[in-house]
Amino acid sequence: MAALGSAATQGRLHRGDVYMPITPMFHVHAWGLPYVATLLGIKQVYPGRYLPANLLALIAREKVTFSHCVPTILHMLLEHPAAADTDLAHWKVIIGGAALPRALAQRALARGIDISMPRP
């Protein structure tokens, strides 16, 4: 329930979102957000292997609007050639697991990605 209050009340996750976790289910982000998404009745997309081309295709096809990942995954997605043709402007991403480098944050913001990081 703490996750419900945390994610939902801070305006990050809404009933109209399409949620795709891009961290393993044992990662701290997956300890609560899948439950919140289920409680809110949000469509959930589980990607399987974290291959950039597949992730970008799922984001486009399923119209994913909310994810969480580590900076390395975000970097892999933005560097992949398919990223140039993928609309990411509707995508909200919570970054964790490591500090987000300023240059990577700027690249994501330039693509219209709404990024946030939990505060320590």
From TrEMBL:
Pfam families: AMP-binding
Domain of life: Eukaryota
Keyword ATP-binding applies: no
Domain AMP-dependent synthetase/ligase: 10-113
Keyword Metal-binding annotated: no
Annotated family: Belongs to the ATP-dependent AMP-binding enzyme family.
Name recorded for this polypeptide: AMP-dependent synthetase/ligase domain-containing protein
Organism: Rhizopus oryzae (Mucormycosis agent)
